[in-house]
Amino acid sequence: MANYCCVRGCNNNSQKNHKLSYFSIPMDSIRQLQWLENIERLDLMVLEQIKVKNRWVCSEHFESRMFAGLGRNKLKKNAIPTIIKKVHLDSSTSKVPTASRISGYISILTPPLVTSERR
Ligand SMILES: [Zn+2]
Q: Boundaries of each THAP-type domain copy (predicted)?
């Protein structure tokens, strides 16, 4: 079975690009959050842990300093994916439940400017 890269905008899979390495998302909750945040797939947080582990991130999303050794097939323990293409979601594909939650959250964090003019 092919491993598909779950990074948004990346269509690599182990059948098409078998030269790449594919890394499963860490089980450790802190690192998992870092990965999912970086690859903009926080929607995967709602999945069961076991399913998240079956999601893959290809080696194109890791800087060379993230790899252990000279090859690109083994990551350092604390490696996180940092090379992500910025993709603009078109509305037809945005079935992401967290996206609206996050934007709602941001609007709470940045309240509209209160014009407190005192005369
Ligand atoms: Zn990828």
A: 1-84
Which residues, in sequence order, are bridge partners of residue 13?
4
Tell me how far the alpha carbon of residue 111 lies from the centroid of ligand 1, in angstroms: 36
The token duo for 31 is 């690192």
Alpha-carbon span 45 to 94, nearest angstrom: 16
In the three-class reduction of DSSP (H, G, I as helix; E, B as strand; rest coil), residue 63 is classed as coil
Could you give the 3-state DSSP secondary structure of residue 57? strand
Q: What is the reported pTM?
A: 0.68
Residues 56-89 have pLDDT tens digits of 999 999 999 999 988 899 999 999 999 998 765 5
How much distance in Å is there from the Cα of 63 to the middle of ligand 1? 13
| Domain extent listing, the chain | 22-109
**Rg of the chain in Å (alpha carbons):** 18
Residue 20 CA, ligand 1 centroid: distance in Å: 9
Q: What angle do CA 28, 80, 102 make, to 5 degrees?
A: 80
**At 76, which amino acid appears?**
K
